């Protein structure tokens, strides 16, 4: 009997060893590699949040130099992965695009974007697809951009005449204010069939301040987004500021819609973008838009549509003022193609390779969005041998990619000629060449990428062609410091003296 018991114990032990070994081997075969990407340890509760500092894109670029092209951070209770090279960005935004097509919840989406009812923060799904489709069809697509070219020309004419008046009075032009005034009116004509601002002045400058505040606050790393249990405390005061700003924008947008509806009869047979949106409130064949959806997308267009493009133009002009030889060469190219008896037209742009190279160089060195808007993984996945858990937030450091010495020679210098070389000549900023993705890439690429490129090339070219530029008296060196936000602003707005250089008749129409 003792022998039987001993045999039974040995049999049970062997069986357990066999089963455990089988389970272990099976887990190795079935489970993905659980090795997370490297990154800093951080602090209890808040994790790596303090390490991001006031300039997160710079801090994350420094981390990438230390830990590698994929960095993993525990930020509060959330995991975040940061991609800092073209190859890794391609893996996340192209190969794994569908897995990273949603946005994580955050205070900006809740308090500014009507609880994610817009096109920027909405979940990837039928409502978002409808908003993108309507935007491309009626405003942001190739055919719609062609149809609205005359609007951009007319509004740019208004801005040029205002700048001539500043020149006549011997006053400096604050570039960002002028650009916001012109771009808001360009958008207003397409969306509402009217100008948003009748004259340049305090009203348009207040709007500019509101846009900058929105883009700045929405770009901040809010503690409550990463430690939800203490979000109600609003430790940084960010959410309170967002709520106050949202109320101001909601009053403005509600007024726009109400005034638009009152004169609907005047547009009979000539619907604008808001008419197209309103028509989908009663869509019988698919998802319907609510009035909140419509307000939210108008907020997207009037904020991101003005701020991102204006910042790219402002940075490019600042770089040219620092490098007068680049400014002169651009003017010489335009004088040869356009002459000095008329203004630049959008149809001239394909014949101006140096101007386009300047725009690409501005996108590279000063991307309007330094960190792409965050995405979140729907499922766990693997990238470059590293395990990325489900619900991990993704940031692509577009700023770091543009300054990567392994990608760009002399990356900190403003050298438009790099885009005229055989190596980089075909690189395009529309999201397929991951060395230059100022508008992001994949399904969630900026919906206004085409419009943004047209605005930057056309407006920058017109400003350079139409005026001589110099710094105000007493300003010896430009301040090129950055101010972090969703859009990368100049910390000190560019102010410059301008002098008309074309025939007087060119500024009339």
TrEMBL record:
<dbReference type="InterPro" id="IPR001128">
    <property type="entry name" value="Cyt_P450"/>
</dbReference>
<comment type="pathway">
    <text>Pigment biosynthesis; anthocyanin biosynthesis.</text>
</comment>
<keyword id="KW-0503">Monooxygenase</keyword>
<keyword id="KW-0560">Oxidoreductase</keyword>
<dbReference type="GO" id="GO:0005506">
    <property type="term" value="F:iron ion binding"/>
</dbReference>
<comment type="function">
    <text>Catalyzes the 3'5'-hydroxylation of naringenin and eriodictyol to form 5,7,3,'4',5'-pentahydroxyflavanone and 3',5'-hydroxylation of dihydrokaempferol and dihydroquercetin to form dihydromyricetin.</text>
</comment>
<comment type="similarity">
    <text>Belongs to the cytochrome P450 family.</text>
</comment>
<keyword id="KW-0408">Iron</keyword>
<feature type="binding site" description="axial binding residue">
    <location>
        <position position="446"/>
    </location>
    <ligand>
        <name>heme</name>
    </ligand>
</feature>
<keyword id="KW-0521">NADP</keyword>
<keyword id="KW-0349">Heme</keyword>
<dbReference type="GO" id="GO:0020037">
    <property type="term" value="F:heme binding"/>
</dbReference>
<dbReference type="InterPro" id="IPR002401">
    <property type="entry name" value="Cyt_P450_E_grp-I"/>
</dbReference>
<dbReference type="InterPro" id="IPR036396">
    <property type="entry name" value="Cyt_P450_sf"/>
</dbReference>
<protein>
    <recommendedName>
        <fullName>flavonoid 3',5'-hydroxylase</fullName>
        <ecNumber>1.14.14.81</ecNumber>
    </recommendedName>
</protein>
<dbReference type="InterPro" id="IPR017972">
    <property type="entry name" value="Cyt_P450_CS"/>
</dbReference>
<dbReference type="GO" id="GO:0033772">
    <property type="term" value="F:flavonoid 3',5'-hydroxylase activity"/>
</dbReference>
<dbReference type="Pfam" id="PF00067">
    <property type="entry name" value="p450"/>
</dbReference>
<keyword id="KW-0479">Metal-binding</keyword>
């Amino acid at each position: 009997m003792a022998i039987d018991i001993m045999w039974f114990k040995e049999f049970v032990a062997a069986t357990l060893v066999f089963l455990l070994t089988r389970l272990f081997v099976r887990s190795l075969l079935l489970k993905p590699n659980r090795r997370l990407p490297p990154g800093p340890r951080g602090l209890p509760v808040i994790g790596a949040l303090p390490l991001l500092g006031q300039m997160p894109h710079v801090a994350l670029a420094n981390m990438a130099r230390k830990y590698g092209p994929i960095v993993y951070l525990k930020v509060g209770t959330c995991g975040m992965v940061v991609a800092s090279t073209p190859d890794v960005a391609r893996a996340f935004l192209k190969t794994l695009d569908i897995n990273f097509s949603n946005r994580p919840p955050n205070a900006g989406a809740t308090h500014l974007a009507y609880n994610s009812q817009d096109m920027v923060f909405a979940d990837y799904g039928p409502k978002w697809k409808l908003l993108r489709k309507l935007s491309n069809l009626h405003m942001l697509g190739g055919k719609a951009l062609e149809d609205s070219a005359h609007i951009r020309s007319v509004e740019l004419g208004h801005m040029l005449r205002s700048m001539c008046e500043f020149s006549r009075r011997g006053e400096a032009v604050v570039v960002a204010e002028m650009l916001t005034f012109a771009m808001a009116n360009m958008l207003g004509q397409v969306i509402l069939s009217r100008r948003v601002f009748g004259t340049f002045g305090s009203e348009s400058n207040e709007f500019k301040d509101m846009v900058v505040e929105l883009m700045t606050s929405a770009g901040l790393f809010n503690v409550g987004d990463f430690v939800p249990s203490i979000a109600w405390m609003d430790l940084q005061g960010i959410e309170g500021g967002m709520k106050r700003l949202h109320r101001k924008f909601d009053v403005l947008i509600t007024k726009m819609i109400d005034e638009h509806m009152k004169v609907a009869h005047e547009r009979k047979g000539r619907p604008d973008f808001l008419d197209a949106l309103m028509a989908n409130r009663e869509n019988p064949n698919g998802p319907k838009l609510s009035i909140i959806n419509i307000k939210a997308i108008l907020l997207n267009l009037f904020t991101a549509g003005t701020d991102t493009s204006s910042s790219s133009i402002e940075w490019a002009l600042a770089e040219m003022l620092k490098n007068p030889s680049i400014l002169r060469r651009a003017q010489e190219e335009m004088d040869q193609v356009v002459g000095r008896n008329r203004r630049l037209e959008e149809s001239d742009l394909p014949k101006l390779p140096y101007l386009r190279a300047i725009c690409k160089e501005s996108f590279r060195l000063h991307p309007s969005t330094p960190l792409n808007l965050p995405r979140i993984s729907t499922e766990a996945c693997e990238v470059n041998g590293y395990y990325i858990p489900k619900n991990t937030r993704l940031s692509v450091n577009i700023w770091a990619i543009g300054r990567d010495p392994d990608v760009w020679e002399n990356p900190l210098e403003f050298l438009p000629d790099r885009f005229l070389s055989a190596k980089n000549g075909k690189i395009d900023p529309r999201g397929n060449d991951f060395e230059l993705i100022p508008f992001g890439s994949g399904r969630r690429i900026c919906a206004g990428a085409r419009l943004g490129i047209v605005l930057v090339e056309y407006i920058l070219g017109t400003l350079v062609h139409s005026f001589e530029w110099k710094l105000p008296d007493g300003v010896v060196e430009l301040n090129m410091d950055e101010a972090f936000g969703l859009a990368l602003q100049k910390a000190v707005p560019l102010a410059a003296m301008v002098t008309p250089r074309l025939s007087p008749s060119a500024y009339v129409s």
